[in-house]
Design brief:
alpha/beta; six-stranded mixed sheet; 5 helices; 23% strand
Length: 145
């Protein structure tokens, strides 16, 4: 189970991880969130979602919630295929929550690459992919994939 960190801590850790990824270690960022600017209301539903995302993440992952119901997950030493497996596992694990809450979630994946080599680039790419995920049947989209 991964610990939840603040958005500021997440960006700092991601900045550091990018320096390592630049030397060859695979790195992926997954953004999990409802479609558009929809927020998950504060309360027990959001608390359950927060715990579930942390539980479904590995101990080595870093998880942040920049907005209610939006999660950024840093997957260190994880390639594109591993990120896809992670996203699928998370969405499958949250099926019941989505049905009860009546809120659909999507996952956008961005992997470190020469054109995605900054924190802002990776987060923007993951968010762009997440928006595209709602046009996909499985609600998972890989940026540039």
């Amino acid at each position: 189970m991964a610990d939840l960190c603040t958005p500021k801590e997440f960006r700092l850790i991601l900045d550091f991880a990018i320096g390592i990824a630049d030397r060859g270690l695979p790195l992926a960022v997954v953004r999990l969130a409802p479609e558009g600017d929809q927020l998950v209301p504060e309360g027990p539903g959001l608390d359950r979602l927060r715990v579930a995302v942390a539980y479904l993440s590995r101990k080595t992952d870093r998880v942040s919630m920049p907005r209610p119901g939006q999660f950024d997950v840093l997957l260190v030493d994880c390639n594109r295929q591993g990120a896809l497996i992670f996203a699928d596992r998370v969405l499958q694990g949250l099926n019941t929550w989505q049905e009860v809450a009546g809120i659909g979630l999507g996952c956008g994946i961005a992997c470190f690459a020469p054109n995605l080599s900054t924190t802002d680039d990776l987060l923007a790419a993951a968010d762009s992919a997440r928006e595209g995920a709602f046009r996909a049947d499985d609600r998972i989209e890989i940026y540039g994939g």
